[in-house]
């Protein structure tokens, strides 16, 4: 519980940035191009994932030399203070380009800290657990990533509902970042009183710890072979399945389907709440039937199910297929002076519609208006900004929760057993280092880049007029998971590697 609590808080800190990506894009980046600002926010979000392998190397080495406990005490403090400070950075309008620069630096520190946290927590728990129950006990660590995301969404929802929309936009979005420092303080006190892992303590007492974990992990050809197999045959595919089922799904609901942000949070939170127990189930099951078979089956199901699932999600909220309630449509027009061109105006067209199935639409189109009329670009009025919010009916909301839950089944299959799978591949003396690197490359690089890459593919397909443009972002996780599935099936064939302690 102590290990899981600290790891949960670190994931909360790490994911609060992604959970607020839409809001942060308006605060830390120029507002004249919303799409570019959102992509820049996703790129900053992804930067935290990219540096995770470096954190794995740095803190993994420390963990194998001085101990698991003290290493993930340090990572906890780095993560907590970095998250708190993100909530203190002034907006772009106040300090200009220093805002995104400072946020990027703090995001990189978050990534380094998480790179050292996960391997330490998973190793620590595994080294306490009985060998035949490692899948079950380490699966509690696996829940922390999803629960951390759930907690981040819950905190955001409470903050949004407590404050007005204007208050949340002005300063309320900072509260979830500030709360982090309180949670980190509690976790630090708990972790400080923990004892060292018994297996590591015994190895250290007997003088069997490694003096150069990096060299032994990656300079030894036999061990390095298993590092590569763990990466390309397991964690690479696991990473993209994890991030598709949670972060890309959330981005898809908000940016592609234009579902109201509060509804996105509640739909995601409900599916996460229902799906989280499955981590424990598949971790326990991996003790009975093996880790690899469950992980690879999860990848296989995801590969074939993603496109039908996302097609069903999109069409459930596709307004072109809905009927407007008669006389429900309203249109209001307001104007203000252009910020940069004194002779021009910005006209806001506010539209509201209600549909027969109970869903509704609110749309604000801000058009650049010159004295001679609307400014025309590419044959149509230039929209400075378009905000669309679709509120779905209860039946559709439950349908979306079910479709997200189905994706979480795949997530829990690949992620529930992965900690025990990785721990058992490497000996105690270099375990922290050896397991951390493939995990964080698979999740940090292949998984962490997924939201930005998939969003780019969708945007590009939409601009070129592709018929099913909204599905194009799925090719990235499908291809990566397919490659990992093939490598894992052929080169991790037979029993899971289990290094005796």
TrEMBL record:
Q: Does the keyword Oxidoreductase apply?
A: no
Name the domain of life this protein comes from. Answer: Bacteria
Q: What is its main location?
A: membrane
Residue span, Major facilitator superfamily (MFS) profile domain:
1-496
Q: Which Pfam families match?
A: Sugar_tr
Keyword Cell membrane: yes or no? Answer: yes
Protein's membrane topology: Multi-pass membrane protein
Keywords recorded for this protein, A-Z: Cell membrane, Membrane, Transmembrane, Transmembrane helix, Transport
> Where is it localised?
Cell membrane
Bilayer-spanning residue ranges: 12-30, 36-59, 71-92, 104-125, 137-159, 171-190, 226-246, 266-286, 293-310, 400-423, 435-454, 474-492
Q: What is this protein called?
A: MFS transporter
What lineage, starting at the top, does this entry show? Bacteria, Pseudomonadati, Bacteroidota, Flavobacteriia, Flavobacteriales
